[in-house]
Design brief:
This protein is mainly α. The chain contains 4 helices and no strands. It has 2 domains: 78 residues, Tyrosyl-Transfer RNA Synthetase; 37 residues. Helix 1 packs across helix 3.
Amino acid sequence: MSMYTDPNHIHVQDPGQVEGNMVFTYLDVFGKDKEYIQELKDHYRRGGLGDVKIKRYLIEVLEEELAPIRARREEFAKDPAAVMEILRQGSAQAEQVAAQTLAEVKTAMGINYFG
């Protein structure tokens, strides 16, 4: 609830600035109901819409967005050994890619002394 909004929007009835308001920035990115978000923006600009209301709506939007991620994380947490195996395999693949990239860089720079 301490997210930056509009420092000049002191009272609910005061007109607010949407541009630079991080709550609306996040709503633009994560919100699915663009029509409702536009209504909120228009209302905020006119005045009569408080920061708490838009922040609560943002919380709802973010909770909806994060729910599947949290559910998947819970599933992974049930099998730590499987997670470690996934990480091991990913690390092995990353090491191969990094080694190939490093070899290409050394060749391009003319410092591949052992290749």
